[in-house]
Amino acid sequence: MNFGSGKTKFVQGVLKYFGIENEISSPTFTIINEYHSSSVPIYHFDVYRLADVDEFYAMGGEEYFANGICFIEWGELIEAILPPNYIKITFQKKTDNEEYRTLQIETFGNTYLKGL
């Protein structure tokens, strides 16, 4: 992932879909921002500043996985402890136009393969 590649902007778009538009920011320093829509809790992590996976465990991070939708910026830093079913989206700035991004979407596990 790249700094400034649009990760938080992407999460803002998803939150807007769920009717959440106020006070959306990057959790760079807080590690996690919690949002509660009428249908599902949404958790936005930025684990870039964590020293290791143990720090994620210490904050109870893995407990969020079963309780709502989790967006994890810099998720490759904790990839070893992610649930068996998840979607990985890699953001890349276009070299010829800084305003555009390329997204690579990969699914892991079987849950998100249904209907493909």
At a glance:
The chain has 116 residues and is an alpha+beta fold.
Put simply, the count of helices is 2
Strand order of the largest sheet: 1-2-3
The helix/strand series, from N terminus to C terminus, equals: HEEHEEE
Helix and strand composition category: alpha+beta
CATH architecture of the domain at 7-83: 3-Layer(aba) Sandwich
As a percent range, the share of strand residues is: 25-35%
User: Averaging pLDDT over every residue, what do you get?
Assistant: 87
The radius of gyration computed from the alpha-carbon positions, rounded to a whole number of angstroms, is 14 Å
| Percent helix range | 10-25%
Distance between the termini: 26 Å
The CATH class assignment of the domain at 7-83 is Alpha Beta
Principal-axes geometry comes out as globular
Taking the sheet with the most strands, its summary is: 3 strands, mixed
Number of strands: 5
Notes on the protein architecture:
The protein is of the alpha+beta class and 116 residues long. It has a domain at 7-83: Rossmann fold (3-Layer(aba) Sandwich), CATH 3.40.50. The protein is 15% helix and 28% strand. The protein has helices at 7-17, 53-58; strands at 32-36, 41-46, 69-73, 86-93, 101-108. The mean pLDDT is 87.
